[in-house]
Amino acid sequence: MHIRPTLEHDIQWLPDVERSAAQAFTAWPALAWLAQGDVMNRETHQAFVDAGGSWVAEAPDGRILGFACARFEDQALHLHEVSVRREAQGQGVGRRLLQRVADAARQAGARELTLTTFADVPWNAPFYARLGFEVVDEGLLSARLRGILASELAHGLTGRCAMRLCVGA
Ligand SMILES: CC(C)(COP(=O)(O)OP(=O)(O)OC[C@H]1O[C@@H](n2cnc3c(N)ncnc32)[C@H](O)[C@@H]1OP(=O)(O)O)[C@@H](O)C(=O)NCCC(=O)NCCS
């Protein structure tokens, strides 16, 4: 398996990867509805690719197993999405994608890699914690992260938290 920057011709496969990844939520009744949720559209993927903020995990046979996309916000690289096809989950693909995003953050001189996620879902906050991320305490949230969490809550997403991985010197 190979992690590399996303190319334009990969974009056609990414909505299906995200839909497949979201099937994980069928195992979590309170969030099972996410398995049928909207996925990122082509234009959004294109914008991440154009900005150099998208990576894919490619299997030896050329199949795209997962992707991650992130963008710079303030002094941080912010992870917008990471998805691994349902049948490829639990095999280290997500870990490798996140390592690549963290490397990109370091190379670009970012201070931290940030994200928001579900605090209690085993393949969300606990997954990131295993990779070294820490939950940002409510009182220490930046205006940016506070704004993202407020927007998610307004869209019906409860039980979310912000996390950060320090990548700066
Ligand atoms: C989150 C996601 C990208 C993780 O990718 P993955 O390839 O399955 O994760 P990995 O195999 O690299 O696992 C990395 C670590 O997390 C743990 N982990 C992953 N999935 C887990 C699960 N369902 N339950 C418990 N632990 C889990 C692994 O045990 C592993 O730890 P270890 O290396 O110390 O043993 C993937 O599960 C996914 O696409 N989920 C649906 C979409 C989603 O929730 N995206 C995140 C949005 S915030």
Describe the fold and architecture.
The chain is α+β, with helices and mostly antiparallel strands and 169 residues long. It has a single domain (2-166), classed as Aminopeptidase, CATH 3.40.630.30. The chain has five helices and seven strands, in the order βααβββαβαβαβ. The chain has a seven-stranded mixed sheet, sandwiched between helices. Helix 3 (93-107) links the parallel strand 4 and strand 5 (112-118). The protein is globular and about 45 Å long. Bound molecules: coenzyme A. Coenzyme A binds next to helix 1, strand 4, helix 3 and helix 4.
Would you kindly provide a brief summary of this structure?
By secondary structure, the chain is of the alpha+beta class. It contains 5 helices and 7 strands, in the order E-H-H-E-E-E-H-E-H-E-H-E. The mean pLDDT is 96.
CATH homologous superfamily? Gcn5-related N-acetyltransferase (GNAT)
Bound molecules: coenzyme A
CATH fold topology: Aminopeptidase
Helical fraction: 25-40%
Write down the CATH class.
Answer: Alpha Beta
What is the helix tally? 5
Q: What is the spatial order of strands in the main beta sheet?
A: 1-2-3-4-5-7-6
- What is the CA-atom radius of gyration, in angstroms? 15 Å
* Tally of discrete structural domains: 1
Mean pLDDT: 96
Reading the helices and strands in chain order gives: EHHEEEHEHEHE
Beta strand count = 7
Strand content: 25-35%
Which sheet architecture does the biggest sheet show?
A: 7 strands, mixed
What secondary-structure arrangement, pairings included, does this model have?
Elements: E1 2-5, H1 14-22, H2 42-50, E2 54-58, E3 64-73, E4 76-84, H3 93-107, E5 112-118, H4 125-130, E6 134-135, H5 143-154, E7 160-166
Parallel strand pairs: 4-5
Antiparallel strand pairs: 1-2, 2-3, 3-4, 5-7, 6-7
The protein binds coenzyme A (COA).
